[in-house]
Amino acid sequence: MEVESKSAAGQTVWTASQSTFVHTFLANFIEEGLKTSTGFKKVHLNKCAEALNEKFKLNRTGDHIGNHLKTLRRRYVKINQLRSLSGALWDEEQYIISLDHEHYRNHFENPKNKGDDEYINKPLPYYGNLATIFGNSVATGQFAKSSNEPLGVDADCTAENDDNGAATVMTNGQAQSDVNDANGASCSAATRPYKKAKVVEAANESLAAVLERSTQTLANAIKEAAVANRALPEGLFSIVDNLPGFEIQDKSRYFAHLVANPDTARAFAELPLLYKISWMTMFINANF
């Protein structure tokens, strides 16, 4: 069981599995059409906090979720900035920003880019959920932290609400936040306008909808296939054990489920990483 954690400066610290739970939960909200043009309403952030607390035995609030959403937004902006680097290649399936040796060395010659290492030449499985949540609503780097600031730590800011209960994660008009750090200094963001999120066109439908249809198609194919072969795919345990963002008990439960359902196991083994994470998340949420 994961426990509540705070840094010495009184900041809320998020583990990878807790953060994965939050952005997966909110991405599902969007799939259900619950996000408004001004962002997530306070009631939705509170529901996410309630589910997070139940799973991890924490004491987080909707304000904590709103603050972490801002951190995830900065992470999303940073990834998109790095994707546009000269010489960078983008793997759309595994969500990997690749730089060859020369471009990698040149980029990190600048000490300011030291923190970019966590995003380059390695899978970023959470990017799909972030793209679903933020989409084209984040077009600039105005919220980006510097590369050396930890993105797994949120200041205990309080998310303000508009008259309709929408958090200032995305506001209709303008937003302003003020936070006091451990030394009493104020970390305030100047009032700045936000454009309303544009209606997503059919050609740019959310990743969550694509995942849902793909998952349903695979599930239907498995149901209709009268396959007598009960052999499990090679390396199934390693595939499940290496999935990021899940607890050992969750991996154990899902591995047992796959062993009992070889057809599902074979289909699962062939999926890209993000689809594997989506399948396992849906199974855990539906059964535990």
From TrEMBL:
Residues 14-105 form the Myb/SANT-like domain. It holds the Pfam family Myb_DNA-bind_3. InterPro entries: Myb/SANT-like_dom. PANTHER family: 10A19I.15. This is Myb/SANT-like domain-containing protein.
